[in-house]
From TrEMBL:
Keywords: Antiviral defense, ATP-binding, Helicase, Hydrolase, Metal-binding, Nucleotide-binding. This is CRISPR-associated helicase Cas3. Residues 21-215 form the HD Cas3-type domain. It holds the Pfam family Cas3_C. SUPFAM superfamilies: HD-domain/PDEase-like (SSF109604), P-loop containing nucleoside triphosphate hydrolases (SSF52540). The keyword ATP-binding applies. InterPro entries: Cas3-like_dom, Cas3_C, CRISPR-assoc_Cas3_HD, CRISPR-assoc_Cas3_HD_sf, DEAD_box_RNA_helicases, Helicase_C-like, P-loop_NTPase. In the N-terminal section; belongs to the CRISPR-associated nuclease Cas3-HD family. PROSITE patterns: HD_CAS3.
Length: 947
């Protein structure tokens, strides 16, 4: 062992910004010890058993968990070793406190600027060598440690990147690096570093380091420690160890053990579990078995069959078996996430989970009234990102106060329980900053994906890549779907198995077929793959319990013009019993917002002159309302059409695709524009959804279905069946091939009815399967061209995703592979979805006296930001809740200045990116604004109207 250096020079600072300027800055060695102590506590109290095992395996320390723990602590303790460099002079105030021996090199060391993360990478080998680790295997560990150090700001660097020797200083600086490292090393018990450090494990360790650094970098905590430094470093470290549990708990990251209740009590449901749910309760535990690591489960059932509760019961079994803590429940949209968040919150409360961390994870989560906290305050977390840039570029990362820490940027997935959009998880396999932190967050939970059929080919590739990483980490996965093609589920399962270590070549020619309805569970123990399924008896029982004959009526329609086949005339004819007869509940689903608005106006004119806001029987729901209005309408619609009612006497809901997925609605009849068959089945899932339940427990208020509703009926408005083509505006939503194939399949349904669940999978495969479904005898015809265009687009999307995604877990050699694309990509620079870019549009009002207000009446002025760009959270929320997501190309070609936000918002991280539609108000009436060759206007009843 080499000679140990002397004591660390505490004039070397680690934190300065935001601290008490009357005191010396916070010493670097003490910050490093804080991070090491927190990393140890994260290992003990935050990481799941599964994560600890995976990290230990990746360090070659199987069965030596304590040794692995110390190595993780060492990585965290050395994360800022690169600050012993020219970094020390980036703050004039802090630099004044440097000892004379170190300050003398100032002019030479600041000639060039480098990031302290890269500087730390450059000196990692030197530091370990000073500690006596110089063998070949030690060098391999040093290289991986260097990558982890370089990645603690969220982006991994190439080992080949270097810094100018002058930036690192002379022998005095090298001596201090050794002294700092030796102090950390000694207080950690002189851990023996391993010779192995596999990349997937290193990614998790990097996530731990980032999290530990953030937790101990909160300004309030640092100011408190700054004012009372312990004389001895050993005492300081002991204090840091004692403080770690409190910091973790205040951040909302402490683990809570649920008191698991029986099925009925846990979910607040009447009646016992259905056969599918009972199968999971009784049969899954035996299928999981012993001695295996991770597994993937696919649950298939018709809409309304209780797949969500089935998944949560599966999670309970899988988490117990594989040592994961909590779960992430991911869905396709913000609307479905918002609704699921409420259901999960209630389920946790019923099982003594009130103290558990539960987050809603999507970009607008903080606007949700059930999740928002009006008392949120901002405080700085001194993450030191940007310390190396010029003073004008300094930017403290702003997060919520400690007890709301999880609601800060990039943090919500770290909670024990998380509900949100799938996009937030897919960021983990895109080359964005802090993707390692997302992988850390997901690898400790059971991973649940609802509506797995709802993702396009681009997102399917990203989901498959994420499943590959989760397979490598032994994370149990549950996929839910009512209409997932077998080819897609097969690819996803194989991606997971490859991540778990199964050779790709051995998977060729093998397929994994899931029963419908039912479940399939697949795992791999390093030697063989095992499949388990729902028992035949339970599968038959589920099919019988949910058996339904769905009448499908195809109505050929003509868009535009009059006559009996005009789309409007057909809709009004079908709805006549609801609007003018006995009453009942009808759902009309349109493919575009414009169609929904026009349909709503026509039906309101025919059946009820009152608007939605006036309590009319015709309601309108789509995504182009301001956030607060949309949230209120969603509550109103789901409340009136939910299982418990109160059910209206007569109601017609006109909506778009927002009602397709995971929304608990029951209609007596569903009318839909032609859509791809899988989506038609999803829409039909809102028809007679609760009939079985009501037959046992009675309909809400004792009001049964109207006489005219003799059975569930789906009416499809098909312009192709009338000899017409696909409407132009639909081409932006659905491919012509899928629509034409669906039209042809519907026309061939025997008896005009679909047997659910028996016919579902076959119909899905007929339209969405891998086999082409057009007439090969006419290779140059329209159908062939549509199929070629569809497949070409699908292939392009898959290729794009393959290019953008990080490599598969077992293909990573250098951690920089996770950020190999050029540039410093952040989350807003890449996309988890392909399609037109979107912006958020604030619809404001210009009063006749020139004032710009948030309301038509002119009572609420647009709030102004302070000179530093800050604004009270309540004011930001008020503005953001009035925004509407729109396609960016709507504003293309228009005068950019006319849509610019107020000047005082320019530097605000949220408001600065808004576009503002300034609508003139004349004599109390809102005037449309011309944008290119169209106009835009926010209507209280219709939402944003584009003509």
């Amino acid at each position: 062992m080499a000679r140990r250096p002397g004591a660390p020079d505490e004039s070397v600072w680690g934190k300065s910004r935001g601290l008490d300027p009357a005191l010396p800055p916070y010493p670097l060695i003490r910050h490093c010890l804080d991070a090491a102590a927190m990393a140890l506590h994260l290992w003990d109290a935050y990481l799941s058993e599964n994560q600890r095992v995976r990290i230990a395996e990746g360090l070659g320390l199987v069965g030596e968990v304590e040794r692995a723990r110390s190595v993780v602590g060492l990585c965290a303790g050395l994360h800022d070793i690169g600050k012993l460099s020219g970094f020390q002079f980036c703050s004039v105030h802090a630099g004044r406190y440097l000892s004379a021996e170190l300050a003398g090199d100032r002019s030479r060391m600041i000639a060039e600027r480098f990031g302290h993360d890269v500087a730390g990478m450059a000196v990692a080998g030197e530091v370990l060598s000073a500690l006596g680790f110089a063998a070949e295997e030690d060098v391999r560990f040093a290289d991986r440690l260097a990558e982890v150090i370089a990645g603690h700001h969220g982006r991994f660097h190439r080992l080949e990147e270097s810094v100018a020797p002058a930036f690192l200083g002379g022998t005095a600086w090298a001596r201090q690096r050794g002294a700092h490292a030796a102090s950390v090393y000694g207080l950690l018990g002189a851990p023996q570093v391993p010779g192995v450090f596999e990349a997937p494990a290193a990614v998790l360790v990097a996530g731990v380091v980032i999290l530990a650094d953030w937790l101990v970098s909160q300004s309030e905590y640092l100011r408190m420690r700054q004012r009372g430094l312990e004389p001895q470093l050993a005492d300081h470290f002991e204090r840091s160890v004692k403080d770690a549990p409190r910091l973790l708990a205040e951040a909302g990251l402490a683990r809570v053990g649920l008191r698991r209740k029986g099925f009925v009590e846990a979910y607040g449901l009447q009646g016992g579990p259905n056969p599918l749910q009972r199968s999971v309760l009784e049969e899954l535990r035996g299928a999981v078995g012993e001695g295996r690591r991770g597994g993937i489960m696919l649950i298939t059932a018709a809409p309304g069959d209780g797949k969500s509760e089935t998944a949560l019961e599966a999670e309970r079994i899988l988490s117990e078996r594989f040592g994961t803590e909590g779960y992430a429940f991911l869905l396709p949209t913000m609307a479905t996430s918002d609704q699921m968040y409420g259901r999960v919150a209630q389920a946790l409360l019923r099982q003594s989970g009130e103290g558990a961390g539960l987050t809603l994870v999507h970009s607008m989560a903080w606007l949700n009234s059930a999740y928002a906290d009006e008392q949120l305050e901002a405080s700085d977390v001194l993450a030191c990102e940007g310390d190396e840039v010029r003073q004008s570029g300094l930017r403290a990362e702003v997060h919520m106060r400690p007890q709301r820490w999880l609601r800060g940027s990039k943090r919500p997935l770290l909670a024990q329980f998380a509900v949100g959009t799938i996009d937030q998880a897919l960021m983990a396999v895109l080359p964005v900053r802090h993707n390692a932190l997302r992988l850390l967050a997901l690898s400790g939970k059971t991973f649940i994906v609802d509506e797995a059929h709802a993702y396009d080919p681009y997102m399917q590739v990203l989901l498959g890549r994420l499943l590959n990483w989760l397979g490598a980490y032994g994370v149990p996965v549950v996929l839910l779907s009512a209409t997932l093609p077998a080819s897609v589920s097969d690819r996803l399962i194989k991606e997971y198995l490859q991540g778990a270590g199964h050779k790709r070549s051995l998977l060729k020619g093998r397929s994994f077929e899931a029963p419908y309805p039912g479940w399939l569970y697949v795992d791999f123990d390093g030697e063989s793959v095992r499949e388990s399924r729902i028992s035949d008896a339970r599968g038959r029982a589920q099919a019988q319990a949910r058996s339904m004959r769905l009448e499908v009526v195809v109505e050929p329609v003509v868009r535009g013009g009059g006559g009996a086949r005009a789309r409007r005339a057909v809709i009004e004819r079908v709805l006549q019993p609801v609007g003018e007869g006995e009453g009942g509940v009808a759902l009309v689903v349109c493919n575009t917002v414009g169609d929904a608005q026009d349909t709503y106006l026509a039906l309101r004119e025919r059946f009820d002159s009152r608007s939605h806001e006036e309590g009319g029987m015709v309601q309108l729901l789509h995504a182009r309302f301001p956030g607060d209005v949309r949230e209120a309408r969603m509550r109103e619609v789901t409340g009136g059409l939910g299982r418990g009612g109160p059910r209206p006497v007569r109601r017609i809901v006109v909506a778009t695709q927002v009602v397709e997925q995971s929304l608990d609605l029951d209609a007596d009849i569903v009318i839909s524009d032609l859509a791809p068959l899988s989506l038609l089945l999803q829409r039909a899932g809102r028809c007679w959804r609760h009939e079985n339940h009501w037959m046992v427990h009675g309909a809400p208020g004792g009001r049964g279905r109207p006489v005219w509703a003799g059975g569930p009926r789906l009416v499809v408005l098909d312009p192709i069946a009338c000899g017409g083509g696909v409407p132009e505006q639909w081409g932006e939503v659905y491919s012509e091939h899928l629509l034409a194939t669906t039209s042809r399949v519907l026309a061939g349904i025997e008896g005009g009815a679909i047997s659910i669940p028996d016919d579902v999978q076959g119909l899905v495969e007929a339209v969405h399967g891998d086999s082409p479904a057009y007439n090969w005898n006419d290779p140059g015809g329209r159908e062939a061209k549509a199929w070629a265009a569809h497949k070409g687009k699908e292939t392009a999307e898959r290729s794009m995703a393959q290019l953008r995604a990080i490599p598969r877990a077992r293909s990573v050699r250098a951690l920089h592979d996770l950020h190999r694309l050029p540039g410093e990509e952040d989350e807003w620079e890449v996309s988890t979805r392909l399609g037109a870019d979107s912006v958020r549009l604030l619809c404001a009002y210009v009063q006749q006296d020139g004032r710009v207000t948030l309301d038509v009446e002119g009572e609420r002025l647009l709030p102004e930001a302070g000179l530093d760009g800050t604004m009270p959270v309540s004011s930001v929320r008020e503005v953001m809740r009035r925004t509407v997501p729109v396609r960016a190309d709507w504003l293309a070609g228009a005068d950019c200045g006319s849509f610019a936000p107020p000047e005082s918002w320019a530097e605000h991280p949220l408001l600065g990116d808004l576009r503002v539609l300034r609508q003139p108000v004349l004599s109390g009436r809102v005037q449309a604004v011309k944008v290119g060759d169209r106009t835009l206007r926010l209507d209280d009843d219709l939402g944003l109207v584009r003509k």
